[in-house]
Design brief:
alpha+beta; ten-stranded mixed β-sheet; eight-stranded mixed β-sheet; 20 strands
């Protein structure tokens, strides 16, 4: 298949922008192949703050266009494109100074609401100190003079990215994981495809394409080396670290945002947990496995504890993760100040590169780079239509949600389980129900990860492209960061469920389990390291 007919567009990179570009091109009627060296969202797109937002801090930087664009996309995702995956979430902004800060921050948040356009989320509200403490009793009395509550939205970034790729496949795109680009095909100066290797079989293939799109994020400079020509921009990596703590550890009924000396820190409700982060530091080491150090974790704890009655400790942390932001290089070396704008370039005829940007604006980035490719293709290529194209699971979601109790009775599942399934699969939850109907044992919870049922694990392989244990524990689910043992107890049962589906022998299954165990222990060792170099060395013991 890969060595067969020429395609209109070859997309390199299976993060949110690459998946978005594949969907955008396929929805215009173009033939598309997407290749990803690891798994969908294996890089930055599974390691964000899980927020769909305009970015309050960009208002302070006077970047109104970026905020307006992002808030428009937030509305589309909430109402049309992915209402099953993107949900409103309240945030408290504690105020530490009287009078002037309320006026200053309040004006900014009012502008934020205004730029957001139609009421996709509730408007902000000013709160007294007592009013703020009613929403967040975990905060110290003397930590604030009052607060402002506003709304943004959140998403499971890895699942969202994967479901965009599935939508692209439904529109005719060929989407391939574990397929690594090892070189570009040329006809003179023109790029006419790529040479790839299937990492599962070791077989090499050539994909011929009329245009090639590189959506490789922090690997953009690797693409520069592959082309042998200089790009009009480069990408600098910034590491962002998050920690997870149990929901009952903080008595709050809202998320929270606070200023730090470098940026902002979020406390984000996440099912039975809180996500707390992030950091913003330069990173120049391994791109595949950025890791949280002891210093990163302490930085987060110190800042959040400055507001809490009862401080969090390392013992409260059930998971950590680190991701790399692909920031276009600017005049300053401070990564917190580098641009989150995106750019499209054609450094060689037929090769289009998209870089920069932020998760929330992935669809705009995808449309922009496909527009550029379409201009090279010529002919009557339709304009982008993805602003009106729901991703899989969106259509029919509200009907099921409105009838959730009846669905739960019909499926003989607890209501909370059905609600959680709807928030992960949307209307595709019916596929999960079909699996249970065919095998009732699949309704049982996974030992060691009781928030998930066996049918979800099977579905990750049969419908969601998971090929390895890590794909499921880290991205199709979030078991690797949501249970204290990082999924070690759940791994054997998950391997047992998927082994026959993937044709694994007992030896292969045991190797997958051992590989996952090694990864967890390497990450835990890295978390104890004092600096990035030591953490990188510890993590690479189990690199894959």
């Amino acid at each position: 298949m890969l060595d067969a007919a020429e395609v209109d567009v070859l997309v390199i990179g299976g993060g949110v922008t690459g998946a978005g570009a594949a969907l955008d091109a396929a929805s215009r009627g173009l033939s598309v192949t997407l290749v990803e060296a690891r798994d969908f969202a294996a890089g930055t797109s599974s390691r964000s703050s899980k927020l769909i937002h305009g970015g309050l801090r960009y208002l302070e930087q006077m970047d109104f266009a970026l905020v307006r664009e992002a808030l428009k996309e937030r509305g589309l995702l909430l109402n049309t494109l992915a209402p099953h995956l993107v949900h409103p979430v309240p945030f408290l902004f504690p105020l530490q100074h009287r009078v002037w800060e309320r006026a200053y921050i309040g004006a900014g948040i009012a502008l934020y609401d205004t730029l957001g356009g139609a009421r996709t989320v509730p408007m902000h509200k000013h709160l007294s100190r007592s009013g703020a403490l009613e929403l967040a009793p975990a905060l110290r009395d003397d930590a604030m003079t009052g607060a402002i509550r506003y709304y943004d939205a959140q998403v499971d970034d890895a699942r969202h990215t994967m479901m965009i790729a599935r939508t692209a496949a439904e529109r005719g795109a060929t989407v391939l994981t574990r397929t690594k680009v090892i070189g570009l095909e040329r006809d003179g100066e023109k790029v006419v495809g790529a040479r790839v290797i299937d990492l599962e079989t070791g077989l090499a293939h050539t994909i011929r394409a009329r245009t090639v799109i590189s959506a490789t994020g922090v690997w953009t400079d690797d693409m520069i080396k592959m082309t042998g020509v200089d790009f009009p921009f480069h990408v600098q990596m910034s590491k962002g670290v998050h920690i997870m703590v149990p929901r009952d550890r903080l008595d709050m009924h809202t998320g929270m945002i606070m200023r730090t000396e470098k940026s902002v820190l979020f406390v984000i409700p996440w099912a039975e947990h809180w996500i707390i982060g992030t950091t913003d530091t330069e990173w120049s080491l391994d791109k595949n496995h950025p890791t949280a150090t002891a210093a990163d974790v302490q930085y987060i704890l110190d800042h959040v504890n400055s507001l809490l009655r009862e401080p969090l400790t390392r013992a409260d942390i059930v998971g950590t993760y680190a991701g790399l932001r692909p920031l276009m290089t600017g005049a300053t070396k401070e990564t917190a100040k580098l641009s989150r704008e995106h750019a499209v370039a054609e450094p060689a005829p037929g090769l289009f590169v998209i870089a920069g940007g932020k998760y929330t604006t992935y669809r705009v980035m995808a449309a922009d780079v496909v527009d550029a490719a379409a201009a090279r293709l010529g002919g009557e290529v339709p304009a982008s239509s993805t602003a009106q194209l729901p991703i899989v699971g969106a259509e029919g979601y509200f009907d099921l949600l409105g009838d959730v109790r009846a669905v739960a009775v019909d499926q003989r599942l607890p209501v909370d389980v059905v609600q959680r399934l709807l928030g992960r699969y949307g209307s595709l939850s019916t596929d999960i129900f079909d699996l249970i109907d065919a095998d009732p044992t699949l309704r049982h919870p996974i030992p060691g990860a009781s928030d998930h049922i066996a049918a979800e694990i099977v579905y990750a392989v049969t419908h969601e492209g998971a090929l390895h244990l890590d794909d499921i524990l880290t991205r199709r689910t979030r078991i690797s960061i949501e249970v204290p043992d990082r999924g070690l107890a759940a791994a054997p049962e998950i391997a047992r469920l998927i082994a026959p589906l993937l044709g694994w022998t007992d030896e292969t299954a045991n190797a997958e389990i051992n590989r996952y165990y090694d990864r967890v222990h390497a990450e835990l060792a890295a978390n104890e390291a004092g600096d990035d170099a030591a953490a990188n060395e510890a993590r690479l013991v189990a690199a894959r």
